[in-house]
What does this fold into?
Amino acid sequence: MVTMTDSMVERQDLIRLVAEVMKDEQALKLTQEFAWERVVDNFHAQLANGKLLAKGLPLRDSLAHRERHIPSYQWRAIRLQLSDATAQGHGVHYVGVVVGRPKAQR
Amino acid sequence: MDTENSPIRLAKRFPFVTAFWLIAVGLSVLGVASPMPAMMFFAAGAITLIYQLREYVSGARILDLWDQGLLVVQARAVSEWLEPDYAIEKFADASVFEEYLTACEQTKTKHNEVVAIRAQLAALEMRGDPHLRW
It folds into this structure.
């Protein structure tokens, strides 16, 4: 019969503990992702209701055209890509997007 | 080939211009010695111009220009334009962003716990207990 040494017991406890903590970590990562989605949704809502303004270079026929302001109603159809500063959806495509807030609304 | 700019697509968009160009080229190839081909080329250019003008004076275009004008006026009150990844941090509602930061902090703390426990396991292994060989 194999007897359990203290080290073996300690190891098993630690393995059990790490499994539990990792499960918690996964749950928290999900919470973090949902929280980020809420931040992005909030940002989009502000663009769509005109609290924030954005401008970018419309991409047509693979060419970036002269910079123009993005009308707030277009944010109902397009989505911002934070990583490369583009906004696109339903045939509309902007590159080099920048965002600002009018002073009066601060 | 880029389908957006394919000649077929452009030909479909401007059928009259295409027809004029084709007739003009055809007449040139046949060697019709008259001002006809030159006139046809000229007509094609004129029709293209009319197409462009029509696009500019259409109601949608005027409304778009009006929108842009309004936006330009509003945009004059913007003191700084930021890249979206900076703008989201600055302009997203503070409460919502705070919630996200808290979630990040909690995840980081939990991750550190995982690392610490793994380090304990590794230390146990290092002690060389023969029962603990993986």
Observations:
- The mean pLDDT of chain A is 87.
